[in-house]
Write a structure and sequence with these properties.
Blueprint: E1 3-5, E2 12-14, E3 17-19, H1 26-38, E4 43-45, H2 53-60, E5 68-73, H3 89-103, E6 108-113, H4 122-134, E7 138-144, H5 148-161, E8 166-172, H6 184-191, E9 194-198, H7 211-217, H8 223-239, H9 243-254, E10 258-263, H10 267-274, H11 283-291, H12 301-308, H13 311-314
Parallel strand pairs: 3-4, 3-10, 4-5, 5-6, 6-7, 7-8, 8-9, 9-10
Antiparallel strand pairs: 1-2
């Protein structure tokens, strides 16, 4: 496995991230992490709301400094307490202290805001995160599940006020769910942020279930999901790979900023998923996968793209200008 820099930082992260949300057995958890590490993986992603996930990692991870430990806060610690959730300073401080205890460490390498909180000023969140960084309890910060304008405002504030900016963005991304291509992915590329893409297998739809399960589940799939799964299987047969590898490889083919975040419930799944980093999809395969499921960028992306080659807008030389690349 190769490594990439995490956003505009010097932190080296493996090109495939391991999500630990589904891990619930300590013995199997240790085997999964060992298999991932043996393949060169070094990022373990969890959250304060993942049940015993943080505590399990704290118990089974033996080579702490060899891993990039990432966790999240925002989600409720106590449903009856209005201040036990959200992105305000009080919840950040208490959630972080609890995560550090569970993980049995004095710092987390990446601390994610789990979801945008409309009721907390982004200024408060960014200042509180920067305080945690300056205290040495957090090394880098990122944000998950937030509008593009919120992320841009947050990082602009950080730049102006010398606070720690978001280096990473965490979003759902797969062949069936490409919404992030409209605003979020171009924004992340422009700002130099890494994009941790969760659900790259679309909750198993693109993973290539065994034939007997496929027959049972097929009726529950929408026509769009069936078309995507069929296209993945066709490319899989041509390349001699596994469906999960093709689905993961597609997310990597779309942008260099994307780091697939994959979960696993067995060592066999880890080995299969890691194999995706060795798979390069031919351009024709990428086109056929995308043609199988309808997706429209929508306004303003599609409108701007049309205007870029329109002489009425940019003159007769519109098609002879070499740009700076994506975004």
């Amino acid at each position: 496995m190769r490594y990439r820099l995490f956003g505009n930082t010097g932190l080296r992260v493996s090109e495939l991230l391991l999500g630990t949300m589904v891990l619930d057995d300590r013995r199997e958890c240790r085997r999964i992490i060992d298999a991932y590490a043996d393949a060169g993986g070094n990022v373990l992603d969890t959250a304060s709301a993942y049940g015993d996930g943080e505590s399990m990692l704290g118990e089974v991870v033996e080579r702490r400094d060899r891993f990039v430990i990432a966790t999240k806060y925002t989600l409720s610690r106590d449903a009856a307490d209005p201040n036990a959730s959200g992105n305000h300073r009080k919840n950040l401080r208490l959630s972080l202290e609890r995560s550090l205890r569970r993980l049995r460490t004095d710092h987390v390498d990446i601390y994610w805001v789990h979801i945008w909180d409309r009721h907390t000023p982004i200024e408060e969140t960014m200042r509180a995160l920067d305080d945690a960084v300056r205290a040495g309890k957090v090394l880098y910060v990122g944000i998950s599940d937030a509008p593009a304008w919120v992320v841009v405002r947050a990082n602009t504030l950080a730049e102006w006020r010398d606070w720690t900016p978001f280096a990473g963005l965490q979003v759902p991304y797969n062949l069936l769910r490409r919404d992030v291509e409209r605003e979020l992915l171009p924004m992340a590329e422009a700002l130099g942020m890494s994009v941790a893409a969760w659900a790259p297998l679309a909750s198993g739809v693109l993973s290539g279930a065994p034939e007997e399960r496929r027959r049972v589940d097929a009726a529950a799939l929408t026509p769009r999901e069936r078309a995507a799964a069929r296209a993945v299987r066709d490319v899989t047969d041509e390349l001699g790979a596994r469906p999960a590898q093709v689905a993961i490889a597609w997310t990597r083919a779309r942008s260099h900023a994307v780091l697939p975040l994959v979960g696993a419930s067995s060592t066999e799944q880890v080995v299969e998923n890691v194999g995706a980093v060795e798979l390069t999809l031919p351009d024709d395969a990428v086109r056929r996968l995308e043609a199988a499921v309808e997706f429209e960028p929508g306004f303003p992306g599609d409108f701007i793209a049309e205007c870029e080659t329109n002489p009425f807008v940019f003159g007769d030389t519109a098609t002879r200008v070499d740009g700076r690349g994506p975004g």
